[in-house]
Amino acid sequence: MKLTLHGARTVLLASTLLTTAANADIALKDMSEIVGSWKLESVAAALDKPQVPENRTWEFRPDGIIVTSGYNRHFKTDDRHEWSYKIVNGKIVADDPGRPGRTIDYSVYKKEGNELILKGGLEGFYFFKKQ
Question: What is each CA distance from 88 to 18, 30, 92, 99, in whole angstroms?
């Protein structure tokens, strides 16, 4: 089979669209889709990078507050933090603790059953299990 230039472009475009669709983030409709307690099991800079174990709980409250608690591997102690979040254009937009007026954005990369993977923030990918 001989592929013309037009045909090659069509194949390349179709391949690009399929790849993009397969890796598309999941847009949240509202807070109710993530409300509850989630166990942060690990983080990774990328999906194909090693995962760093975590042992924290993130609670997404329906009033727009995130509460994180548990062992903080950066400070080597247990701690608890609260800050505001909202859903904007299908993404989680959270206040950046310690940096007033700044936000950290997270998109939902995967949400199936009790599994949630967020993309963004400072770590790259966040791997959660529903509690």
Answer: 26, 9, 6, 20
Position 71: which residue type?
Y
Name the residue with tokens 């942060």: 40
pTM: 0.80
Q: What is the pLDDT of residues 36-62, one digit of tens each?
A: 999 999 999 999 999 999 999 999 999
Instruction: Tell me the DSSP string of the chain.
Output: -PPPHHHHHHHHHHHHHHHHHHTPPBPPSSGGGT-EEEEEEEEESSTTSPPEEEEEEEEE-TTSEEEEEEEETTTTEEEEEEEEEEEETTEEEEE-TTSTT-EEEEEEEEEETTEEEEEETTTEEEEEEE-
Q: What is the pLDDT of residue 2?
A: 52
CA distances in angstroms from 73 to 51, 53, 128, listed in the order given:
14, 9, 17
Distance between CA atoms of residues 80 and 26, nearest Å? 28
